[in-house]
Amino acid sequence: MSKIKALLTSLLLAELFFSCKKSTDIVPDDSSDTQDEVNALENMELASDYTWNTTDEKVITLNGTTGTVNGTGATISNGILNISSAGTYKISGTLTNGQIVVSTDDKNLVRVIFNGVNITSSKSSPLFLDNAEKVIVVLAEGSNNVLTDASTYTDVSEGQNAAFFSQTYTAIMGAGNLTVNGKFADGIASKDGLVIKNGNITVNSVDDGIRGKDFLVIRGGTFNVNSGGDGLKSDNETDADFGYIGIEDGTFKITSGGDGISAQTNVNITGGDFNITSGGGSSKTVAETLSAKGIKGLTSVALNGNFTINSADDGIHSNTKVSVFDGIYEVSSADNGIHADNEVVIKIGTINITKAYEGIEAKFITIDDGNLSIVSSNDCLNATAGNRTEQNDGAILTINGGYIALNGSAGDPLDSNGSMVQSGGTVIAHGPNSSPEVPIDYNGTFNISGGILLASAPGTQMFQAPSTSSKQNSLKLTFKSQNAAETLFHVKDDKGNTLITFKPVRKYIGIVFSSAELVKGTTYTISTGGTSTGTLNGGLYSGGVYSGGTEKGTFTITSAVTSVSI
User: Fold this and answer.
1) Can you give the pLDDT at residue 35?
2) What span, in angstroms and rounded, lies between the C-alpha atoms of 58 and 471?
3) pLDDT at residue 41, rounded to an integer
4) What is the DSSP letter of 49?
5) What spatial distance separates the first Cα and last Cα of the chain, rounded to whole Å?
6) Is the pTM of this model over 0.90?
7) What is the pLDDT of residue 43?
8) Which whole-number Å values give the CA distances from 265 to 209, 216, 241, in the listed order?
9) What angle do CA 19, 23, 26 make, to 5 degrees?
10) Cα 243 from Cα 394, distance rounded (Å)
11) What kind and span of H or E run contains 181?
12) Peptide bond into 439 cis (omega under 30)
């Protein structure tokens, strides 16, 4: 196992195991060899990297194209500050057209303290970390530091393409400020791994904002990234051990022309506040050959935190798996809110998808708990293998709990090209504007054994209820005439107790209702219209008193699915 893979994995394991506040442990998919990974982390990123004796600092003062060096290990000539030995260097001042270069074969680290530097280069990267065992860049408390390159480079040796460019393991820390203006391409880029412990960092870049090719690990800090390409990126395509992004905490504002956060393999976020606008936001569209997703991890995405995502592409995307462990999500997307080719798992959290083509899409969708509100122009929950068949494709939508409100204007709120299973939770499906789209659509079976299911249908064509093999009873109701949008639907039992008061957002002629309170042999009364003093949540009232409605008829539960026309 490589040191870099171990660094990232053990970092995430520590955070995930010890910050878990729920009864269900949050464990990454790859949790093998945990102790080896912890040991490797200790060998890679050391606590001593971030502490030092101030008496060891070598003070460097820059002035235009020259400067002074107090101590050995560094020289300055013709605007170039060369650091050629391991040690701690405290730098202040300005280079108007120059560069800081770190290049040493020493086996100890180089620590560079920015204590108010402003470096501008018209030729290449203002900061070039060429060769070292490791480099720690420290932002001195209260300091303001600026790196700015030019729109064209005359020196692109070693692939320099960023204002802050590194070819070695690099860490950034400190309570100071760093502004990076990448006018040529990237803002901050490492061809190795990049760790950011903290800092107040602003990046403006033509291409990618912050890039760690092998991995990008962020422990905390405040970030404002404006990039023409991807905002945060890790893109090693040749080694499956690399290409990771791991974020423990921090405050992020990311505005990107490409993806907001993009990893070749895994994105693992265990905390933080994120405001991401990608590709111009959900009012824009991008060509199929481009990518402007909010968060993308091709192998997997695992999330916990607070997210506001406004994307011209998928809000959250993986080619394999997306896991939501907790957090708050506000998503507006021109494509899918959350998409994975294979699996989406929602453990718990508050997910509000206010705009999407399809809300959540994967072959296997599992919702264990949480509060979900999804507004989409097509399907809200879509379990599909992606082959566009009308046959059972093996997809499964599983709902074990949660409060789920679905509003699909021109699609199916609940859709599985395979089967559906509901064992708990509350699911409210506001049907589409017109047939042949329906509130519930499945090609296999839909077995319900617990929870509440409510769905309104605009027509009777292809109108489906749960399967007759279900353990919990359901009502499949068809009215003889259409009910106007927002006309209340009310059911009470033979003792006058309210079972349900539902307010569909669109006109409806059909209702599907399933509840443990629907008991075989019991008679119930249906009313429409009227008002309720209860609290409305996603179309379902809780508490309060229903009054003023018109009784439409009664029904008696006779089987797992009782079909009624009134």
Assistant:
1) 36
2) 75
3) 39
4) G
5) 67
6) yes
7) 59
8) 18, 12, 8
9) 50
10) 31
11) strand 177-182
12) no
Which tokens hold the place of 316? Answer: 């959250």
- H/E element holding 227? strand 222-227
Q: Give the strand order in the sheet containing 540-542.
A: 535-537, 540-542, 498-502, 489-492, 523-528, 550-556
The pLDDT value given to residue 13: 46
Paired strand residues for 361: 339, 382
C-beta atoms surrounding 94 within 10 Å: 17
Tokens at residue 200, please? Answer: 């107040």
Strand, helix or coil at 419? strand
Alpha-helix residue ranges (DSSP H) falling in 70-143: none
Q: Measured between alpha carbons, how far is residue 67 from residues 59, 99, 100, 346 in Å?
A: 11, 12, 12, 57
Sign of the four-CA dihedral 220, 221, 222, 224: negative
What pLDDT, in 10s, does the model give residues 302-358?
999 999 999 999 999 999 999 999 999 999 999 999 999 999 999 999 999 999 999
In angstroms, the CA 369 to CA 194 distance is 35
d(CA 397, CA 318): 18
- Which phi and psi angles does 140 have, rounded to 5°? -60, 145
Distance CA 450, CA 70 (A): 74
Contact, 396 vs 373, CB < 8 A?
Answer: no
Task: Kindly list the domain boundaries of the chain, sorted by start residue.
Answer: 45-207, 210-362, 474-565
Angle at 528 between CA 523 and CA 534, to 5 degrees: 95
**Res 460: pLDDT:** 87
Q: Up-side HSE of residue 6: CA atoms within 13 Å toward CB?
A: 16
Tokens of 557: 């539960």
DSSP notation for 347-400:
-S-EEEEEE-SEEEEESEEEE-S-EEEEEESS-SEEE--SS--SS--S-EEEE-
Residue 241: burial class (beta carbons within 10 Å; 0-12, 13-18, 19+) = middle
Residue 32 region by backbone torsions, left for phi larger than 0, else alpha for psi between -120 and 50, else beta: beta
Single-letter residue type at 548: G
What stretches in the chain show pLDDT beneath 70? 1-43
How would you classify residue 88: left for phi > 0, otherwise alpha for psi between -120 and 50, otherwise beta? beta
Q: Which residue do the tokens 């990046």 mark?
A: 203
Q: What is the largest CA-CA distance in the chain?
A: 94
SS3 (DSSP) at 371: strand
467 by Cβ neighbours in 10 Å (0-12 / 13-18 / 19+) ranks as middle
CA–CA separation, 271 and 249 (whole Å):
5
**How far is the C-alpha of 115 from the C-alpha of 314, rounded, in Å?**
41
Which strand (E) or helix (H) includes residue 43? helix 34-44
Say how far apart CA 204 and CA 3 lie, in whole Å.
31
- The DSSP letter of residue 516 is T
Q: Is 523 exposed, middle or buried (CB count within 10 Å of its CB: 0-12, 13-18, 19+)? A: exposed
- On the CB side of 5, CA atoms within 13 Å amount to 15
Alpha carbons 362 and 528: distance in angstroms, whole number? 36
